[in-house]
Design brief:
Elements: H1 11-19, E1 29-34, H2 41-48, E2 54-61, H3 66-74, E3 81-86, H4 91-95, E4 100-103, H5 119-136, E5 141-144, H6 149-162, E6 171-173, H7 176-190, E7 201-203, E8 210-212, H8 226-237, H9 239-247, H10 255-272, E9 278-285, E10 293-301, E11 304-308, H11 316-341
Parallel strand pairs: 1-2, 1-4, 2-3, 4-5, 5-6
Antiparallel strand pairs: 7-8, 9-10, 10-11
The structure holds 1,4-dihydronicotinamide adenine dinucleotide (NAI) and oxaloacetate ion.
């Protein structure tokens, strides 16, 4: 399982690729936010309106407020034109000609729920959005935030396959929040600015499938005790639940997710614009493990994923984490694939 991993990634590339938003405007990109009026969608759209690479920001949601959210954002003095699209009859217009479709549409968790408990509601939402992307913007990059991410990416991929337009380099599950959290917690422990921390988080986006490679963190995590390393690993794995509990029925992470989603979207766009060395972790079609989809650092380019950078050397503890993650990932992936095939 481990021999297929590539060489350790250059941590500096992760840091630089991930954290410097471009101010150049080499190209004009249409970006769609599907689920734009929600807890993630609104602040994500606010951040994307500030990205100079975005010249058209199309906001799509079922919520009646959506055209109003678009008018609100359109008053910001940044270049992107903003359009609002409400309801399925306006979806094709929203998606047509998109370069990037970011999807936070769907229901969030309440305390006591797992991400898998969202499957029944969110699967058909992602399936239906993917089928319109297949028709109206088959070359668009799809960045899926909707949970459970581990199953939603296979769903979108199967829909695109059925439509004959699937390109595995253009379908991503957004796991950036796991990296953002790991950097934040390590920054706290090390007493350094979290923006100077870089770490790959691999696997998937739920519980045991979230594998922070603390042994590859730069700078090294100032923890020597294995019990503390285990505790930090579990905090990163359960950080989503920490937010769900703290919001006490008011939903899950929205603001930190918007930040993470804007960062991922910005990196995708910089890759599309031809910038070199743009690296982020993302959940993609993969043959590195037995799981058909897997998250680890990837290089973005003019056509989406340009190179899978692998996950480097794992220590014994991380190998055990990977072993625990694979059966869960396989199950999540199968659930997604079966949903489209049924
Ligand atoms: N990948 C990640 O790291 C994270 C993923 N999430 C997931 O993101 C999703 C959204 O979370 P929130 O924004 O907090 O939820 P929310 O309920 O605040 O917003 C969801 C929005 O989606 C819209 N929507 C529902 N069905 C739709 C459809 N068919 N087409 C377009 N829009 C539709 C709703 O009207 C609503 O505005 C959830 O599934 C949540 O679990 C949340 C945090 C982190
Ligand atoms: O925990 C949730 O349900 C939302 C999520 O994916 C996260 O915050 O990582």
């Amino acid at each position: 399982m481990f021999s297929r991993a590539l060489k350790p990634i250059a941590a500096v590339a992760v840091q630089n690729g991930a954290k410097n938003f471009s101010t150049t405007s080499q190209k004009n990109f249409k970006v769609v936010v599907a689920g734009a009026s929600g807890g993630i969608g609104q602040p994500l759209s606010l951040l994307l309106k500030q990205n100079a690479l975005v010249t058209h920001l199309a906001l799509y949601d079922l919520a009646p407020v959506t055209p109003g959210v678009a008018v609100d954002l359109s008053h910001m003095d940044t270049p992107a034109k903003v359009t609002g699209h409400k309801g399925p009859e306006q979806l094709a217009d929203a998606i047509k000609g998109a370069d990037l479709v970011v999807i936070p549409a769907g229901v969030p968790r309440k305390p006591g729920m797992t991400r898998d408990d969202l499957f029944n509601t969110n699967a058909s939402i992602v399936r239906d959005l993917a089928s319109v992307v297949a028709k109206e913007a088959p070359k668009a990059i799809m960045a899926i935030i909707t949970n459970p991410v581990n199953s939603m990416v296979p769903i979108a991929s199967e829909v695109l396959k059925n439509a004959g337009v699937y390109d595995p380099n253009r379908v991503l599950g957004v796991t950036t929040l796991d990296v953002v959290r790991a950097c934040s917690f390590i920054g706290e422990i090390n007493g350094v600015d979290p923006r100077t921390v870089s770490i790959p988080v691999i696997g998937g986006h739920s519980g045991v499938t979230i594998i922070p490679l603390l042994s590859q963190a730069k700078p090294a995590v100032k923890l020597t005790n294995q019990a503390d390393i285990k505790k930090l690993t579990e905090r990163i794995q359960e950080a989503g639940t920490e937010v769900v509990k703290a919001k006490a029925g008011g939903g899950s992470a929205t603001l930190s997710m918007a930040y993470a989603g804007a960062r991922l979207a910005g990196s995708v766009l910089r890759g599309l614009a031809g910038e070199a060395n743009v690296v982020e972790c993302a959940y993609i079609k993969s043959d590195l493990t037995e799981a058909g989809y897997f998250a680890n650092p990837v290089l973005f380019g003019k056509n989406g994923v340009a190179k899978n950078l692998g996950y480097g050397e794992l220590n014994k503890f991380e190998q055990e984490l990977l072993k625990a993650a694979i059966p869960e990932l396989l199950k999540n992936i199968e659930t997604g694939v079966k949903f489209v095939k049924k």
